[in-house]
Amino acid sequence: MDPCPFVRLTVGNLGLKIPVATKPARSVVHPSSSPCFCKIKLKGFPVQTGVVPFVPPENPSPDNQQQTVTATFHLNKSDLEKLAAKSIFAKKICLKISIYTGRRGTTCGVNSGKLLGKVSVPLDLAGTESKASVFHNGWICVGKDTKGSSAQFHLNVKAEPDPRFVFQFDGEPECSPQVFQIQGNIKQPVFTCKFSFRNTGDRNQRSRSLQSEPSGARSWLSSFGSERERPGKERKGWSITVHDLSGSPVAAASMVTPFVASPGSDRVSRSNPGSWLILRPGDDTWKPWGRLEAWRERGASDGLGYRFELIPDSAAAGIVLAESTLSSNKGGKFCIDLGANSGNGGRATPSPACSPRSSGDYGYGLWPYCMYRGFVMSAGVEGEGKCSKPNVEVSVQHVSCTEDAAAFVALAAAIDLSMDACRLFSQRLRKELYPNQDLLG
């Protein structure tokens, strides 16, 4: 089946030039002491914010060796149709940017930043599903213009085609659902999932659906997992295997480090997270592709914290692709997007895609496994106690075979199951997740 059309609208290469006054004045912003930020708004989407760096007056443009992205809006076919309808019956759709001096945040409910000026960039999104368009690239005057003394704001606004495969679980992952590919109004089954619960008394027993695997795969679980055992407050032994329509296993997610309550508490802590290993078949065995860690955040956020890292072959350290928090109450989107600070108002703050976790070298191109760029995937996650049927989007550029797509589906199942694994241990889980929970103290 064909992928679904998506458009990626990005705002980047921000910069600000402010004329230096010959005489000191309170109203003049001094670049060295006054930080700037902006709020970026597209109607129908959450507002996004970003830092605006100062550019020395003698520089012609921001000193960027490559495109830097501050905000990203992901538009599906429905979004494009709504925006097109608005442009027909109302004024033209515009991207609106407000530039502020001062630090971000609020004090006593009042914005701490001072508005410097506003910029509006008209958008014509027709045809952007198949062809890239640049709506603005250069400087715009902002603020009061008195004899050429206005500030100048630099930005790049462009839209690019970003087709994606869309998959939908037809049930909760722990209920061993089918997974459909969605294309418009067409739903076609492509995978089946098998959830299994290993007996807590046998550490080496694998999921039934993986019993036929070569014995070499078990060494991956022991090398990446943890042998810790604590009676009572722990959740372990979960695994989910993704099969293609012929019944062959094409990906798996296995809980390799139990989710254990911290001493004296009912929660999984950040300092001692549980983890999953995402596996792919290769050379007649299972090979690790990625590792997902999850925990329960403390404080007002009270969310599901997570970190996902890629495990390249023969690499001493993983590559962190995503690290963020999802609301335990409302849920949210697990997202791997390596081209922006956030997407659609999300809180994702991915680490540099090309850097091993143990390395301080963040130079692009220096790490030999830089295969993931831009939007990679996203998966919807419901809050605690809500029926969750994950919707998964995967960029076409990152899918070259069935196993590629299946790995992302297994990862989506793992992050969804982590919401349950990180529930407070004072709360009961559904029987599909822990049939023996009544025996635990």
From TrEMBL:
It comes from the Eukaryota. Residues 226-236 have a biased composition (Basic and acidic residues). Residues 201-236 are annotated as: Disordered. Residues 207-225 have a biased composition (Polar residues). It holds the Pfam family DUF1005. InterPro entries: DUF1005. This is Formin-like protein 18. It comes from Acer yangbiense.
